[in-house]
Amino acid sequence: MQTVRLADGQNYLAWRAVARALLLAGTRPDDVRWEEGEADLLTAAEGNTQAVAGRAVGVVPQRFVDLAKVALFHPDPARLALLYRLLFRLQKDHALLASRSDPDVARLYRLCSDVRERERREREARNHPQPMPVPPREEHAMDQAFEDIHSLAAARAAIQGCTRCPLFEHATQAVFGEGPEHAEVMFEGEQPGDLEDVHGKPFVGPAGQVLDGALERVGINRSRTYVTNAVKHFKFEPRGKRRIHQKPNAGEIQACRFWLGLERRLVRPKLVVALGASAAQALMGRAVSVSSVRGKRLELPDGANLMVTVHPSYLLRIPEADRKAEELKRFEADLRGIKAFIDRRGNGARGATAAA
Predict the structure, then answer these.
(1) Looking at the domain that runs over 169-355, which CATH code has it been given?
(2) pTM for this model (two decimals)
(3) Where would a tag sit more exposed on the chain, N or C end, judged by fewer CB atoms within 10 A?
């Protein structure tokens, strides 16, 4: 067993020099014990770390380097061993970082997320001692970004670089909305699921199939609607090879309101349908229960109509067949109300044309 002691566990260059020496010697992760202390110590590598500092040792993606530099600032003492274990594994599996369900990879992303969240809280505490929904500096940045994005295609490309909340560290990609640029109706869910995260499209998983079936039965053509989510990155907890959905928190919903607002600005739907409480919270700016607003015609500050109903995933979670069938009928009744709204607007437009 080799013991490595680093005087500064947050120093990426110091960690890299030792890790490269170990890697060059073919030292397996299980044969190394990492410590932090006053003096640097490499007890059994017998190599001078400076001698290999400038040599090409191992190959890793730049993504690993970026993540490692962040993860080293986490207080977890096991982070040093984790990084070397990942470095060692990356020599045989160059695509390892894409395996978000891998325990080591998931742990790395979690460490980075914790560090970024801590930095965000500290920054907010310094700049805004009193809580503010949208700091003026951020609001100005939003206005500038709005001015620079003039189409859904541009927004869809821009969101892939979004770092407004820590969720981007874990998700495969951001999942933007989909549908006609001037759709009358916008359906907004909570967040992408596992399949949406993989394919980059909203509502293509089990909940999407429930929504598609219900829309078809009530006579709404989904291709003529715009579908999106309040939060654009998949939030999950890895369990073995599975990724289990986690509900986004208020901060994550608030951070993503920028993109939802941009979609509404570009599409300008006459009716927005919030599917579930998280979607309603993103639109209304406050937490609400679905039962308290379901079936009511509400109005958003920009004049758009708002209707709230359950998320299709709610129907999937009901175990009793009879109750599931009953709740599905209620959901379809909500959709029929939406179809009636569409039909009324269509008849009104045709009547106006005839009168002209």
Answers:
(1) 3.40.470.10
(2) 0.61
(3) C
